Amino acid sequence: MTDSKRRKGLMAASALLGGVLVLSGCSDGNAKADGDGGSDSSSQAKVDEAAAKKTSEAQIKITPKDGSDNASINNGTAVTVSKGTLTSVSMQTAEGTAVAGQISADKKSWKPTGQLQRATTYKIAAEAADSEGRTAHENASFTTVSPANSFIGNFTPEDGSTVGVGMPVSINFNKAITNKAAVQKGITVSSSSGQEVVGHWFNANRLDFRPESYWTGGSTVTLKLDLDGVEGASGVYGVQQKTVTFKIGRNQVSIVDAKTKTMKVTKDGKTIRTIPISAGSPENKTYQGQMVISEKFKETRMDGSTVGFTNDDGKGEYDIKDVPHAMRLSSSGTFIHGNYWGAKSIFGAVNTSHGCVGLSDTKGAGDKNTPAAWFYDNSLIGDVVVVKNTGDKTIAPDNGLNGWNLDWAAWKAGSAI
Q1: Which residues lie within the region annotated Disordered (predicted)?
Q2: Does the reported pTM lie above 0.70?
């Protein structure tokens, strides 16, 4: 063998030997690594498996979301759970005042049992367990809508009351409403009589509801306010969630005729009494039109200065501190009331008042036998008093509860929906 061939052979043998050594070295290293790595992987798998077993499958959801503001004060707060049941829920104000609540029978949900306060921060902590008894926790904090960012509607008549056939549902909002359609859609008024009821906006703050003709006597009217979360104006939300019902009494409509100076009281279409009256003088005529009794006072003060009747010294042309049996017919000061200071001879003969309708009465409102006392005792808030032949203009529909002075087409034209 030549030297060159022998060198090549030695080199090949050396390379092969080196390769074996290298392979042996790698094999030994891998065996050790595999042994060590196998042990670490097995341990990690056991840790992961144990962790998985310890994690509850119960999934808790709290509404409103954590960090919310302008939250509802009514039914917008709730805790629910899936893949488990609630074991405890606590709710309190930021100051630590507890809020009562109740977990449902199936333990799938929780709600507070009362209305929340406006402009208040609340905190909720909830715990649930899955089928294996593993617990899950969730926390949230939110702030309810503030008075500055909410509106309410003050309504009449009152829940549970009995009123006359002319009583509209009148709602006065404490903030101007620009999204009138949205707000009106959140309000429904219905009658057991089946009468169609339509809303009419007098301005941005007042919405009244009525049927085409007076309510059916003996019917029940239901008002539902579903305004919670309704945006009435930019950044201003409703908070009311309420149902109101009231009864319509007998159909009583009284017709005041300033020309004949009498009032005919009709019940269910039949005249039950004719009463002599004294309406507004030629200088201070009484408004004409259909008017609704909105308030009743056994005695009240009437000061002329409050309605523009003043003397040169600025004092009222009259100031009677004990006007008996007074019933309001307008916001501007029109009343039908007892009169004890005028001569008995004026009733049925002369119109002498500053615009009111006067009936004969006695001082102190204690005599049940006077015409004024009888009419007062037999009248309901919501009864209609129709005034005619005064020579004055028809009263404005929004001056009191007097929307009946709009015909049905004009009334419906004021609806936003």
Answers
A1: 28-57
A2: yes
